[in-house]
Amino acid sequence: MTEEFDDMYGTFKALLDSFPPTEAVKRLERLGISPEIIQQIRGQHEQHTIRIKELEEPHAVVLGNRDTWYTGPQAKDKCWPAIVDLLHKDGWPQEPAIRSLDDSSTRVVSLLNHPKEKKFSTRGLVVGYVQSGKTTNFTSVMAKAADRGYKLFIVLAGIHNGLRRQTQARLVQQLVEPNPASWSQLTGLDKDFTPTENPASYFGRNNRTHVLCVVKKNATVLRKLARWLEKASDYLGDCPALIIDDEADQATVATKSINPLILSIMSHLPRSAYIGYTASPFANLLIDPSAKDLYPKDFVVNLPKPAGHFGTEVLFGRYALDGEDPEQVDDGYDMIRSVPEDDVSAVRPDTRADIEGFEPVITDTLRRAVEYFWLVTAARRVRGVSNPHNTMLIHTSVNTAVHNSFKRPLEHLRNRSAGSLEDAAFLSRLRGLWENETDRVPAEDFGETKVPFEQLVPELPRVLESCRVIMDNSSSEDRLDYENGPVVAIAVGGNTLSRGLTLEGLSVSYFVRAVSAYDTLLQMGRWFGFRNGYADLPRIWMTDELAEWFRHLATVETEMRRDIDIYMTEDETPLTFAVRLRTHPALRVTAAAKMRDAVTAASSYGGNRVQTHYFHTNADWLRGNIDAARALVDASVANAVRVEERSAEGRYVFRDVPHDVVTEFLSRYKFHEKSPENDADLIIEYIRKRIATAGSLRRWNVAIVGNPKEDTFTFARGVSVGRNNRARLDLSNAAPDFADIKTLMSRRDAAVDLAGDTSRLKEKEIMEERRKQLPDTGLLVLYPIDKVSEPSPSKKLRAPLNAEEHVIGVGLVFPAPLHSDSTVESYISADLSNVRIEEEDFSLLDGEDA
């Protein structure tokens, strides 16, 4: 029986190359195989599919019960084993790197349709991290799909020639060259798509090769491809196609030219699967799910963060999410260096009228950044490990004339420095720079050993001699080329360097360009990625404002990924997932920041926390909030059904306070204008809507949380608690009247009014307990914060609060709705009044292909 089963299961696996699982089983039945053996075969196949579906990583949210036909690589495969061999040669370890890639790419392929299904049109999205190996992932997906019979592979590789060429080179190296007889190419390294006369030569029954086409998102190119596929329609009925959209949030969504052309290409392919790959899926997840568009209706896959990856959170820190202990959320590494606002006009024209004739000034910060880059290059040569390339990025503007203006002063700086290497004063300055930087970020924290300055000096002449200044933009002929030996380059550019393109060995960035969209901002972080062998050395020079934007972005991004994972474990589908995502307050901030003009955004606070972390530090503003807080406590004392004093804990709870006491406080308390999620008018409107529609939030518990070990703050007669200590982030060029404490509430505070021992409950458990004990009651927490608030010695990136008066922080916890939640709408937009915005240049989308 076992031998017969083994033989038949082998036959079943062979049939899966030609038929979906259900059809393969029917074929076995026609061969007269016994029902018992067929049942065993079904069970064995189901076990394999369950393993794929239940992989710990990556998480996926899937529409319906998709038929998981793909259960992993087989011995007869050619394309995937070739990739594994190449990765081994590049030093990838089997565990965990290749195993993780194998699992994640297998999961994505398992969500595609079987290539022999008569007709399908799949829409999926894969969410990764910037510079985290998304190209390697989709190359692996393409290899495995090719091994199972997908024929046509179209890769949409951004909007610039540089990224298209880089992607073509990677795919040729990893897919075509190991199996040249198995592939035909419609595009080349220096040739985007050009129609051929005879489509039958690629898609006819006699041609069994896979067809590779790597194209830009350019209207002229895509129009030619769509017309060519239309002419080939007689041959495409039996041509399973996989479309990979790299940087899927760029140009694909809501563009009048590119979006319809992608849909047109898919319309000519009866068997097609579209997968968008992106690190910033904000736009993709805000497509109308009901429209006939590219919304990922079939699946969303959330790739795990690779080990050793430098991301937004690692470099900039972030704010604590609901349920996280603020003390456990890191402030990021001390790798960000501040560019004073006064320097910005020296490296970027203030207005369009100033572009002509503009010549940048090598400011102190820019000079330090360049000199530090040379020192890093020398240090990496001393260490003699990892990537042989060394790149510095200067990104101040999208304007090509501005880029070109940097060449002369930077080359002058290089030549002058090369001539000063014997000068004691010059070497002393370099030594001071190196010692300062290596003291602030100890190499030992990253498992590295500090390179002494004396070992750098002999390397510096060759470093400066080999250093090139490259203008890499849409109009320049000089481009970064990592294919012909080690590179040492200071790259000055704009959009060509800001999307998808990998800057090899990037260690130093000078970045002052302002953008209005969080997804654009995230994509411009070319410094994200892997820094094996020099993880202690990267530095970024930017304005404090941009660093703050990135810190906020890290929080939005982390929260979005966490929510994706949460929804994936709650039997959500991509369609219902979209609705839940749209009503999240954090994305209201994101939507506002994505638009230059004000936009209408609906927000729901149900089941969420709101807390203050930005404050003015001037006395008048702070006194107004103190007065509002004292009035709230007076009213709570007078109106509460019960008052609980917990003096040992430094806490008070006023139970069942009427809602109008809370809304009156919110109308008086001043939230900082840089906190759009803390919109008092929206919160008040939400409370009133919830009362009117569900009868909820009529009553509130008002709590005071202090520190019993510190000096007291008095709210009302008989109501005093010790002041909390909340140091601010140390922003060297921050406005004098501004403080960011990052996080106010702890998870414990959100349970201050709950009965029983809540000390070990996690955030989800606290919200569930609130639903049981206080399903209709809101919680408002006041925090008196000491105006000095010295940071603890371990917090290197913090400074004393130094406010002119004590600060009142506020946290709000809203009960989760029992049914559908109320939403409130308001016109909101990012505060960009003091920033000159430079949008992405989309003229390349509709221009003639270059």
Characteristic terms for this protein:
30 strands, 850 residues, 8-stranded mixed β-sheet
- Give the % helix: 25-40%
Number of strands: 30
Q: Distance between the terminal alpha carbons, to the nearest Å? A: 65 Å
The helix-and-strand class reads: alpha/beta
User: Would you identify the regions where 5 or more consecutive residues have pLDDT less than 50?
Assistant: 579-602, 824-842
Helix tally equals 29
* Main sheet specs: 8 strands, mixed
Short description:
This protein is 38% helix and 17% strand. The protein has 850 residues and is of the alpha/beta class.
Q: Mind explaining what this structure looks like?
A:
The chain is globular and about 90 Å long. By secondary structure, the protein is of the alpha/beta class. α8 (200-203) links the parallel β4 and β5 (210-215). The strands form eight sheets. It has an eight-stranded mixed sheet, sandwiched between helices. The termini are far apart.
Write the topology of this structure.
Layout: H1 2-15, H2 21-30, H3 35-53, E1 59-62, H4 79-89, H5 94-110, E2 120-127, H6 134-147, E3 152-157, H7 161-176, E4 183-185, H8 200-203, E5 210-215, H9 219-231, H10 233-236, E6 241-246, H11 258-267, E7 271-278, E8 299-302, E9 309-310, H12 312-316, E10 336-338, H13 341-347, H14 364-383, E11 390-395, H15 400-405, H16 407-418, H17 424-440, H18 453-456, H19 460-466, E12 467-472, E13 488-493, H20 495-498, E14 506-511, H21 518-523, E15 529-530, E16 539-542, H22 544-568, H23 574-582, H24 585-593, E17 599-603, E18 609-611, E19 614-615, H25 619-639, E20 642-646, E21 651-658, H26 659-668, H27 680-694, E22 699-705, E23 712-716, E24 719-722, E25 728-729, E26 739-740, H28 763-773, E27 778-785, E28 798-799, E29 807-813, E30 824-828, H29 843-846
Parallel strand pairs: 2-7, 2-8, 3-5, 3-6, 4-5, 6-7, 10-16, 11-13, 11-14, 12-13, 14-16, 22-27
Antiparallel strand pairs: 1-8, 9-15, 17-30, 18-29, 19-26, 20-21, 21-22, 23-24, 25-28, 27-29
Helix pairs in contact: 1-3, 5-6, 9-11, 16-19, 25-26, 26-27
